[in-house]
Every structure is written in C-alpha cells, then in structure tokens.
Amino acid sequence: MKKFLWPVLACGLSFHVVAQEGAEGNGQGEQGPPRWGLGLGAVVTDSAYAGEGTRVMPFPLVSYNGDHFYVEGLTAGWKFIESNNFNAAVVAKARMDGFDVKDLGRRELAENGIDYRLLEDRDKALDLGTKLVWRGGFGELEFEALADVTDASGGQEASLQYGYGFKAGKGQLTPNVGVTWQSKDMGNYYYGTLKEEVARGVIDYRPGSVTVPHVGVSYFRPLGEKWSMMGFAQYKLLPDKITDSPLIERDTDGSATVFLGFMRGF
C-alpha cells in the first residue's frame, strides 16, 4: 500500500535539531542550520492494524527555521522562549494516525470476529499544544503535550523523549528512548470500537488510556555544503490494551518505523 503524505517526523528528532547537532559536529556551529530546507524522503511503517501490512509513504521534505516561527514536516510552531539550553513553543501538528477501512484485511478482521462492512474509518486530526526542549551535555530531553482540536477523537496526548547524540564518522548518531500517553478518548477512538459500530453488532472493545514506550535512533550527515542525509528507525512496544483490540493484527507486540531522506539547505 502507498500513501503520499507530508513529512512524518513524529519519530526521532526534528529537522532543525538534527541539523544543528550535525552542523556543530561538522565545525559549523556558529553558522547553524540553513533557514529553508527542501528535499525528498520516505517512511516505511509496519502497521499494527489487522491486515494493513506495510505502509510505504514517499513525500516531499519541507522545513523552515525562522527567528520564532518554524515548520518541521507535519509540525508548525512559534517559539516564545529560546536559548542555548531551553526552547518552548506553541505547536500545531497534523495527526496521521488511524486507518481507512478499505486498507484493512477482511480475512484478518474476520478472524478477530469483525465484519469489515460494519466498521468506520478512523480520521486524521489536527493537534494543538506546547513543546518544551532541554539541551546540554547530558543530551536532549523533549516534552510535548497536545490536544485534538478537530474532534476526531477529542482526546489528548503527552510524550517524553530523551536522546544523546555523538559523532559517528562524518555524521551524528542519536539513540533515543521515550514514552507516549494517550487519553481515554484517543485510545478508544484509534484502538477501540465506536458506539455506532457496536450498535451494528461489532465487538464492544474500549482500551481506555494507553501508554506506549519506544526506542529508536536518528542519524544526520552533511553531504557537501548544501545537501544532507537524515534518517531514523523506531520501534514502539504496544501494551496489552492495544494488542488485545480486535482491530489489531493477531500476535502483534509492536510496530517498527524507518525513515530516510535527503535535503538541500537554502
């Protein structure tokens, strides 16, 4: 299956953070990352939804790093506090979670006791919230709190991630670990069955709030003066509340995502 999206950077570090680390590691700390970045990338995700399989998502890469306003793929933000060690921003972020029923497996859903014809799509959404980032010799700690303002799920999400970058050859390698909490409304919408579906005869399943830990690694490498390569790999360990859902593939314990992109700075 293929979907064409705007950049998916919910996993790993943001463009301008990774670029900044790479620039410092390349002896260009004073200059910093370029204001504009354009390029191409692709994300491959092993979907946990029943029968959906692997999502392959090519997309254009777009980033902008202004004095206060910035764009990082799916996220736009306004930095109201910025220093060498701490940033705080108000952010708007597109949520690409969910599924189209037509992309799920009819046989796999039937094995879970669900008739696909009784299901509804789980819509994408727009989240608003705040993002806080601490940086120093200890690495980087990032906290983000979001709320769905389009009322797709009407829920909230909070995430915490820690990463420590170091030079690896001509590039910057940053292992990271984190955890994401989703409220009851969000967990029930994306991993449970809806009231209208239950009224049609679908299994009544509501996981409530869910907590999902993840581990990953990001990589950035300059390619000459203008171009750069970046990528990440991440594995989410799904809790029983999610894997017990009839919407999820049987014997699924987690979900892996890999990203690779090339960008030119301006």
From TrEMBL:
Localization terms from the record: Cell outer membrane
Pfam families: MipA
InterPro entries cross-referenced by the UniProt entry: MipA
Keywords for this protein: Cell outer membrane, Membrane, Signal
Superkingdom per UniProt: Bacteria
Signal sequence coordinates: 1-19
Membrane-spanning ranges: none
PANTHER family xref list: MLTA-INTERACTING PROTEIN-RELATED
Descriptive protein name: MipA/OmpV family protein
Organism: Stenotrophomonas oahuensis
